[in-house]
């Protein structure tokens, strides 16, 4: 069960480098600064705390996009996905610290090990996934030392070796939040050792609670604490029937595109028909779809079924109150951060920020008030 303060909440969105939405192939220019600007500003206006800037071996560089966002937004935080390997951790630490100072403390980094061995080979990484997680943990260890050391230091690790490493710039708060994903025992243990936030995909109450408990336990073993973030697609309606009608229409759209040959919305360029989803998180998505179309209170697995488990496509469907009820249950299981995606992130951000998040906060406040009223004098 969660011991987080009732006020502890972070709402995260996503900014993609081009147009397109959940259930669509990318559209428009291959890199669209105007789309990036509009998407960031719409989510800032909707009250999101932070946005994810995704990254992979062939995607535009997330640090550059983060620098751009820092100049066009006022209070929106940004979490840049970053894969250890292409650059040294000492350089990454200075680069991130510089971005954090330019944005007055709004930067965070999501360290990713890479979901698929073939995908990371495009950047020359031929390590096993287990090796990539160990590399990532040492990478974070070096970055934290760069951010905190008052004088040049030497480092001799399993993968990295430095002499007189030092930085003349530090993050505004002395460090910045480090997010981390992965469902294996190794990934969870290393998250507990080096990260601040464990990021997991959408799941059932039982599945999400199990992973959250493992992340909290891993941190405790290392004498630390972590927060837990979960990604969900959100489909809202004025009524329950309207919300499920949206879900049905989205499923028809996705399956129709796939039947028409738009395979790019399901698989990456390196995937082959019949391949099993490589990441453990994606295998969990596929397993959800096999349990049934509707799980728990309002969890819909239709997109996981259509996408064959690839991507974080678990969906909460319902009215703002119904979806908030489910998010509150996840909070009780130790999850206090939510990355909320939608079929049209720009258009839906205002509704999520204006209807769902206030309902969630109202339920949090009511729970806190009840707890205070029931506390002994």
Automatic annotation (TrEMBL):
<keyword id="KW-0288">FMN</keyword>
<dbReference type="InterPro" id="IPR050172">
    <property type="entry name" value="SsuD_RutA_monooxygenase"/>
</dbReference>
<dbReference type="InterPro" id="IPR036661">
    <property type="entry name" value="Luciferase-like_sf"/>
</dbReference>
<keyword id="KW-0560">Oxidoreductase</keyword>
<protein>
    <submittedName>
        <fullName>LLM class flavin-dependent oxidoreductase</fullName>
    </submittedName>
</protein>
<dbReference type="InterPro" id="IPR011251">
    <property type="entry name" value="Luciferase-like_dom"/>
</dbReference>
<dbReference type="GO" id="GO:0008726">
    <property type="term" value="F:alkanesulfonate monooxygenase activity"/>
</dbReference>
<keyword id="KW-0503">Monooxygenase</keyword>
<dbReference type="Pfam" id="PF00296">
    <property type="entry name" value="Bac_luciferase"/>
</dbReference>
<dbReference type="GO" id="GO:0046306">
    <property type="term" value="P:alkanesulfonate catabolic process"/>
</dbReference>
<keyword id="KW-0285">Flavoprotein</keyword>
<feature type="domain" description="Luciferase-like">
    <location>
        <begin position="22"/>
        <end position="336"/>
    </location>
</feature>
């Amino acid at each position: 069960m969660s011991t987080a303060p009732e006020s502890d909440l972070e709402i995260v969105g996503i900014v993609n480098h081009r147009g397109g939405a959940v259930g669509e192939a990318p559209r428009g220019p291959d890199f669209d600064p105007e789309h990036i600007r509009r998407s960031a500003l719409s989510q800032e206006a909707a009250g999101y705390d932070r946005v994810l800037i995704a990254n992979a071996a062939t995607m535009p560089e997330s640090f550059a996009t983060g620098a751009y966002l820092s100049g066009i937004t006022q209070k929106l935080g940004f979490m840049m996905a970053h894969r250890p390997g292409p650059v040294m951790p000492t350089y990454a630490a200075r680069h991130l610290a510089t971005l954090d100072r330019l944005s007055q403390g709004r930067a965070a980094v999501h360290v990713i090990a890479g979901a698929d061995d073939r995908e990371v080979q495009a950047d020359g990484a031929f390590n096993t996934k287990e090796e990539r997680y160990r590399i990532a943990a040492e990478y974070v260890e070096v970055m934290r030392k760069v951010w905190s050391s008052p004088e040049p230091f030497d480092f001799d690790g399993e993968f990295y070796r430095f002499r007189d490493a030092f930085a003349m710039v530090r993050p505004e708060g002395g460090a910045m939040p480090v997010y981390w994903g992965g469902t294996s025992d190794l990934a969870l243990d290393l998250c507990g050792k080096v990260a601040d936030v464990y990021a997991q995909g959408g799941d059932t109450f039982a599945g999400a609670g199990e992973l959250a408990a493992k992340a909290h336990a891993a941190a405790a073993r290392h004498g630390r604490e972590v927060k837990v973030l979960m990604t969900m697609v959100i489909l809202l309606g004025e009524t329950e029937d309207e919300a499920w009608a949206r879900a049905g229409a989205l499923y028809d759209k996705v399956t129709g595109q796939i039947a028409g040959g738009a395979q790019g919305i399901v698989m990456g360029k390196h995937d082959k028909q019949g391949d099993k989803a490589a990441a453990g998180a994606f295998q969990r998505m596929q397993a959800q779809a096999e349990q049934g179309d509707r799980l728990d209170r309002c969890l819909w697995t239709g997109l996981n079924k259509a996408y064959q488990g690839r991507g974080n496509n678990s969906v909460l469907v319902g009215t703002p109150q119904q979806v908030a009820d489910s998010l509150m249950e996840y909070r009780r299981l130790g999850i206090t951060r939510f990355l909320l995606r939608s079929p049209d992130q720009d258009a839906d951000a205002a509704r999520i920020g204006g209807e769902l998040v206030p309902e969630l906060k109202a339920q949090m406040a009511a729970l806190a008030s009840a707890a205070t009223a029931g506390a002994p004098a």
